[in-house]
TrEMBL record:
Lineage per the UniProt record: Bacteria, Bacillati, Actinomycetota, Actinomycetes, Streptosporangiales
Pfam family, one: rve_2
Listed name of the protein: IS3 family transposase
Source superkingdom: Bacteria
Function: Involved in the transposition of the insertion sequence.
SUPFAM superfamilies given in the database record: Ribonuclease H-like (SSF53098)
Domain Integrase catalytic, chain residue ranges per copy: 140-303
PROSITE patterns referenced in this protein's UniProt entry, alphabetically: INTEGRASE (PS50994)
Length: 309
């Protein structure tokens, strides 16, 4: 797979962990150095030898680290926590343990934006629709284009709601198709899937999974899927876990973009959301479920493997 990162020697990481816990004034518990060294598998003498290096060298290293941490944080528009910042530093081949990154971010008052505990629901249940659940909460796939999930969310603007329908690939976590309009009726979700097909990222016989909303269970949408040779799958009404991958993306979108910007018009919101998906989420945002690679990198790796086979 692409984007595989080289691992550094874990000894320095362990020393940095001990140092960060020992000198972190906000830590709830304080442990003796001997106890911590035993638990992480390093010698006490080795720790003190590492700790007693010239302060100037340590200070210079941390100054350089803080500059790079600030760049990674700012490049993410303030959305990265210490784990993603640490992953970005690794991609830059910068040696730093995750605990040191966490400590320095705290000292620099770098706090990522946090999701709001809000719930939304656009689902108009169609309990009479007899459609199976072909996914069963398994949001993985061996290759791109085989298993897709979709949903609709709303974005507030001064002109009224802008509705966003998405199609996400379970293998790469990439938003492979989307559509926006001032309604969330069936033509909107069909257009999102057509856009995914236009991008060449829907395989023959693919499964498309959604919630049990009336737009996804409609006869019009069912006929479209049948014509395209796509198998329809839906979860249960009101059970968000049955479409958790779509819910997760919308949570990230709201946290990192929608809740931080006031959109005066639908067109302005449309441009911002398009930019977020195309330039940030699909190509630059490090995804924890992908080993801190981007969706575009995972897709490229699968394409390389397919061509080499």
């Amino acid at each position: 797979m692409c984007g595989v990162l080289r691992e550094r020697s874990p000894v320095s990481d362990r020393y940095e962990f001990i140092d960060s816990v020992r000198f972190d004034d906000t830590a709830e518990y304080a442990f003796p150095v001997t106890f911590m060294c035993e638990r992480v598998g390093v010698s006490k003498s080795g720790y003190y030898e590492w700790r007693n290096r010239p302060k100037s060298a340590t200070a210079e290293r941390r100054d350089r680290l803080m500059l790079l941490i600030r760049k990674a944080f700012d490049d993410s528009e303030g959305t990265y926590g210490h784990r993603r910042v640490h992953a970005q530093l690794q991609r830059w081949d910068v040696q730093a343990g995750p605990e040191l990154v966490r400590l320095l971010m705290r000292r620099m008052d770098l706090e990522p934006c946090q999701p709001r505990p809000a719930r939304e629901c656009l689902t108009e249940p169609d309990e009479d629709a007899r459609i199976p659940d072909l996914v069963g909460r398994d949001f993985t796939a061996p290759a791109p284009g085989m298993k897709l999930v979709g949903d609709v969310t709303y974005i507030p603007t001064s002109e009224g709601w802008l509705y966003l329908a998405t199609v996400i690939d379970c293998c790469t976590r990439e938003v492979i198709g989307y559509a926006m309009d001032d309604h969330y009726r069936t033509p909107l979700v069909i257009q999102a899937l057509k856009n995914a097909q236009r991008n060449g990222k829907v395989s023959a016989g693919a499964v498309f999974h959604s919630d049990r909303g009336s737009n996804y269970t409609s006869r019009e949408f069912g006929c479209f899927l049948s014509e395209q040779g796509i198998r329809r799958s839906v979860g249960r009404t009101g059970i968000c876990y049955d479409n958790a991958l779509s819910e997760s993306f919308f949570g990230v979108l709201k946290n990192e973009r929608v809740n931080r910007v006031v959109y005066p018009t639908r067109e302005r919101a449309r441009r911002y959301i398009t930019r977020y998906i195309e330039h940030w989420y699909n190509h630059r945002r490090l995804h924890s479920a992908l080993g801190y690679n981007t969706p575009a990198e995972i897709y490229a790796a699968h394409q390389e493997m397919r061509l080499a086979a």
